[in-house]
């Protein structure tokens, strides 16, 4: 199986095997400014695996679609931290002025305080240090519904 990869601004080449965008980058992202890629005009995370002919453009923080992906990842990490530190606590993200994101605690019994912020901050740092990969999982609608119901949504 051989397929063509064309990276914007570089010569096209052929790959003999499936390859992730991270593998494709190799050591060419030492400052980690590349955070996503556009593959055949669709924004993809860096662990996306290339399997067919494609055009690739690596994206940085200066690219709008890469920032949207990055912000979604940040929201996920924050939600994960809240779930670990305060299991069952429901939060909602809201948008405020000038690209600011607000976190709303949906429980009337719990309000944000300094201790909460410190605990969440420590858990966010722990999650980031663990360097978990973001893995996209496609599930059938029935399974997605079950997952959301189990989580109380």
Question: What is the gist of this entry?
Answer:
The protein is of the alpha+beta class and 153 residues long. It is built from four helices and nine strands.
Q: Any chance you could write out the topology, listing elements then pairs?
A:
Layout: E1 3-7, E2 13-15, E3 19-20, H1 21-25, E4 34-39, E5 42-44, E6 49-50, E7 54-60, H2 64-85, E8 91-95, E9 101-105, H3 114-130, H4 141-150
Parallel strand pairs: 1-7
Antiparallel strand pairs: 1-2, 3-6, 4-5, 4-7, 8-9
Write up what this structure looks like.
- This protein is an alpha+beta fold and 153 residues long.
- It contains 4 helices and 9 strands, in the order E-E-E-H-E-E-E-E-H-E-E-H-H.
- It has a 5-stranded mixed sheet. A two-stranded antiparallel sheet has the order 3-6. Strands 8-9 form a two-stranded antiparallel sheet.
- A hairpin with a 2-residue loop joins strand 4 and strand 5 (42-44).
- The longest helix is centred in the middle third of the chain and has 22 residues, at 64-85.
Tertiary shape = elongated
Please state the average pLDDT score. Answer: 91
Please report the total strand number as a whole number.
9
Query: Which range best describes the helical content: under 10%, 10-25%, 25-40%, 40-55%, 55-70% or over 70%?
Result: 25-40%
Strand order of the largest sheet: 2-1-7-4-5
Sheet/helix structural class? alpha+beta
């Amino acid at each position: 199986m051989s397929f063509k990869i064309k990276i914007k601004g570089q010569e096209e080449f052929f790959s003999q095997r499936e390859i992730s965008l991270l593998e494709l980058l190799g050591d060419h992202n030492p400052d980690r400014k590349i955070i996503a890629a556009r593959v055949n005009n669709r924004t993809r995370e860096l662990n996306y695996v290339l399997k067919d002919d494609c055009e690739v453009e690596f994206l940085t923080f200066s690219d709008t679609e890469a920032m949207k992906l990055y912000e979604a990842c940040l929201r996920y990490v924050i939600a994960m931290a809240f779930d670990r530190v305060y299991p069952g606590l429901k939060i909602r993200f809201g948008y405020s002025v000038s690209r600011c994101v607000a976190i709303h605690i949906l429980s009337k019994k719990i309000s944000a305080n300094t201790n909460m912020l410190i605990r969440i901050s420590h858990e966010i740092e722990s999650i980031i240090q663990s360097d978990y990969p973001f893995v996209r999982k496609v599930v059938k609608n029935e399974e997605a519904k079950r997952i959301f119901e189990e989580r109380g949504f």
